[in-house]
Design goal:
The chain is an alpha/beta fold. Helices cover about 45% and strands about 15% of the residues. It contains 8 helices and 9 strands. The radius of gyration is 18 Å and the shape is globular. The termini are far apart. Bound molecules: nicotinamide-adenine-dinucleotide. The site of nicotinamide-adenine-dinucleotide (NAD) has 30 residues, from helix 1 and strand 5.
């Protein structure tokens, strides 16, 4: 019996990078998954991988910042897969700039994706979770559910050049702690994983093209200088950037039954970059 056998999970931003690795990890441990991403092609590939592991996958493609998406995601989990046990707010991107060059549009975009979308998804999940818990209680069952919000080292310590991103990722920690207090009575463990440097599209070297993300009609460039990546290898005690699988492993730990008494916590997953 696998640890997450027949749990129902929902992962946003599951088309690539960390979100895809999380979806595949949860599925490999037995979960069925509702998958969201802005980009339909990549998220279908994740769905194929989940099905290849013998688990069910439901795709709800679209921009999580659109007001109707959160309800649709939760409804897909409950009506198509029969419940909601694990919810991972992962979708994100960075639109960087020092404060004097950061526009209102840019700052709002960071709050929309990293704060407003998780808030709406969790709000949409509140009623269905309450109903599921009530029905379980009537049958004498007590089931732990898991929310894992994805923050960043920038949300814990700030990062020069990322005023919008860091502010938003800090707000997500506040949301995590608040929901841990509100939902303890429903046995929902609400935790946060803050990543350091993980090798994905977001952290590609500019010299190799960097990453690109479409925001409305705009294409936002993401990435870091190669010199920064090289310096990190000597600064990170474990001697390397993390992989998406490293990142997914940390999220998985919070989803385990062994973590049923851990809530409201933020774990930094950075290879020891900040200790
Ligand atoms: N890579 C890192 O070093 C790092 C560090 C700290 C935190 N994070 C966080 O990890 C999460 C995943 O990032 P990643 O590194 O895997 O990046 P990534 O670009 O590889 O993947 C992010 C995914 O989210 C999707 N996405 C973006 N905006 C969306 C939207 N509005 N609606 C739906 N999907 C959307 C993208 O299409 C993409 O597939 C993000 O929240 C990011 O802020 C990453």
């Amino acid at each position: 019996m696998r640890k997450l056998e027949d749990k129902i999970a929902l992962v946003t931003g599951a088309g690539r990078g960390i979100g895809r690795a999380i979806a595949e990890k949860l599925a490999s441990e037995g979960a069925h998954v509702v998958l969201n991403d802005l980009d339909g092609g990549p998220v279908q590939e994740t769905a194929d991988a989940v099905r290849g592991l013998g688990r069910k996958a439901v795709v709800v493609a679209g921009d999580v910042t659109r007001p109707e998406l959160p309800e649709a995601l939760v409804a897909a989990a409950v009506s198509e897969l029969g419940g909601l046990d694990i919810l991972v707010n992962n979708a994100g991107y960075s639109w960087d700039g020092v404060i004097q060059k950061t526009t209102d549009e840019q700052f709002d975009a960071m709050l929309d994706i990293h704060v407003r979308a998780p808030f709406r998804i969790l709000r949409a999940a509140a009623g269905p979770i309450r109903d599921l818990v009530k029905r379980e209680a009537e049958r004498g069952l007590e089931v732990h559910r898991k929310v894992v919000n994805i923050s960043s080292i920038g949300g814990l310590y700030g990062n020069a050049g990322q005023v919008g991103y860091s502010s938003a990722k800090t707000a997500l920690i506040g949301m995590t702690k608040t929901l841990a207090k509100e939902w303890g009575r429903y046995r929902v463990n609400v935790n946060c994983v803050a990543f350091g440097l993980i090798e994905t599209r977001m952290t590609q070297a500019f010299e190799h093209g960097g990453g690109k993300h479409k925001v409305g009609d705009r294409e936002v460039a993401m990435g870091v200088p190669q010199s920064f990546l090289d310096a990190m290898k000597t600064t990170i005690p474990l001697g390397r950037a993390g992989t998406p699988d490293d990142a997914a492993g940390a999220v998985y730990l919070f989803c385990l039954p062994e973590a049923d008494y851990i809530t409201g916590e933020v774990v930094l997953v950075s290879g020891g970059l900040v200790i």
